[in-house]
Specification:
Elements (H helix, E strand, L loop, with lengths): L9 E4 L20 H11 L6 E5 L6 H10 L4 E5 L4 H19 L4 E7 L14 H18 L3 E6 L11 H31 L9
Parallel strand pairs: 1-5, 2-3, 2-4, 4-5
Helix pairs in contact: 3-4, 4-5
The chain binds zinc ion.
Length: 206
């Protein structure tokens, strides 16, 4: 809500398990489709005209597509790179430009930052750690630069450490958060320094 009310430009929803849930049923670890539910709620509240969903999980957002199709949600722009190596490659090479091109007109972008895109993930990723950092940084920089309100959430991630813990997945989520902070903090510093260079006219008592 802070993002929609203009009090923040980016927010993280530390939630997971959405994009395989369709109109009738859950699926693939996903019970409800929180992405589309968020879009529908904001629309019902009159806070948005158009919403973007950028899904960069390793797997295709079939549930999201299913609901969009069944409810004819032409105002929801959904791009899922899952299962499409060419789309993922294009997004890696031209991510920043593509995010602006596809989503500049939406009132809010929901970005699903799947951790199972990683090369060590047992469910099929092929990006290295630095490539994933760049993937996230491009999305953040594009939204920050083009002033697209952004909410991102977690997704995927099935790696385990030697004792069966999820530390490797948490490390990838932490990288996404660090890129978010880095991009938006750097932009904030630039804005503050530009502001400090603006000469403020001193009112002359009349
Ligand atoms: Zn996945």
């Amino acid at each position: 809500m802070h993002v929609m009310e203009g009090r923040a430009r980016v927010a993280c929803s530390p939630t997971i398990g959405f994009h395989h849930a369709g109109y009738h049923d859950g699926g693939g670890f996903c019970t409800f489709n929180g992405l589309v539910a968020t879009a529908l709620e904001l629309k019902a509240l009159g806070l948005v005209d158009a919403v973007g969903i950028l899904d960069m999980d390793q797997h295709y957002g079939d549930g999201t597509d299913d609901i969009i199709f069944r409810l004819d949600l032409s105002w929801v722009r959904h791009i899922s790179t899952g299962g499409n190596r060419n789309a993922r490659q294009r997004m890696l090479e031209h991510g920043r430009e593509m995010v602006v091109e596809k989503f500049a007109a939406v009132d809010l972008l929901l970005y699903q930052a799947g951790a199972d895109s990683h090369v060590d993930d047992p469910l099929g990723g092929y990006l290295g750690t630095e490539q994933m950092r760049r993937r996230d940084a491009d999305v953040f920089a594009a939204c920050e630069g083009a002033n697209i309100p952004l909410v991102w959430n977690l997704a995927g991630g099935y790696q385990r450490d030697a004792s069966g813990g999820i530390a490797p997945v948490l490390g990838l989520h932490r990288n996404t958060m660090n890129e978010c902070i880095r991009v938006y903090a750097a932009a904030g510093e630039q804005a503050a320094s530009a502001l400090s260079r603006v000469a403020v006219p001193v009112p002359v008592p009349g």
